[in-house]
Amino acid sequence: MTNPTRKSILLLLLLVFLGACSGGLAENESPVDPAQLAIGKRVYESNCATCHGAQGEGQPDWKYPVNGVYPAPPHNSKGHTWHHPDAQLLEIIAKGGGLPNSAMPAYADILTPDEVVAVLDYIKTFWGRQEREFQAQVTRQRSGE
Ligand code: HEC
To answer: Which of 46, 81, 92 to mutate to test the pocket of ligand 1 (most atoms within 8 A of CB)?
Structure first.
């Protein structure tokens, strides 16, 4: 093998390696198994979409309480769900909202723990790549990795 060929093979390998490191995911593409996402979508659409919106858009004027009760916040990139680590989001879904008079129901008796994880995986498909990467990092920091 001549030297230039070897060099270009090495360069190609390097590019493939770098591509693998960046995850190679398109905007909004989920690294999660499609079967898991299908479960999450079903759970979301039958339990959460009425309040949080079919695409996670939330209720109008969600930052302003009506008679002391906050409307449902968005789960898309415009909300703040992606600011929080997995553990906190899973706990809110299982135990209900933390605000006084929260309209957010507790799902621990309605969904299985696997369904709670699946619905969170589905919510993550509403985020762009930046939000997803930020939230993955917050989750790693919180779990002490
Ligand atoms: C009856 C309306 C309603 C339904 C149904 C509902 N939520 Fe909520 N949810 C809320 C409200 C209101 C809040 C904000 C108040 C709070 O956190 O106490 C909230 C907050 C949340 C949060 C925290 C968001 C954040 O940015 O911190 C998560 C996560 C969440 N909901 C997930 C779900 C999931 C998953 C479902 C379905 C399994 C669901 N919700 C169903 C009303 C609802």
So the answer is: 92
Minimal-distance CA residue to ligand 1 atom 26: 81
Number of domains in the chain: 1
Ligand 1 atom 39, closest CA: 48
| Residue 126 within a domain | yes
Does the beta carbon of 116 sit less than 6 angstroms from any atom of ligand 1? no
CATH number for the domain harbouring residue 46: 1.10.760.10
Q: Write out the H or E segment, with its range, that includes residue 122.
A: helix 113-123
Q: Which domain holds residue 93?
A: 31-142
CA of 51 to the centre of ligand 1 (A): 8
- Report the distance separating Cα 121 and Cα 56, nearest Å: 13
User: Residue 69: beta bridge partners?
Assistant: 66
Picking from 118, 73, 116, the residue whose alpha carbon sits closest to that of residue 94 is: 116
Domain assignment present for 5: no
Q: Is residue 16 part of a domain?
A: no
The pTM of the full predicted model, rounded to 2 decimals, is: 0.84
The string of pLDDT tens digits covering residues 2-47 is: 566 676 655 555 445 444 444 456 666 667 899 999 999 999 999 9
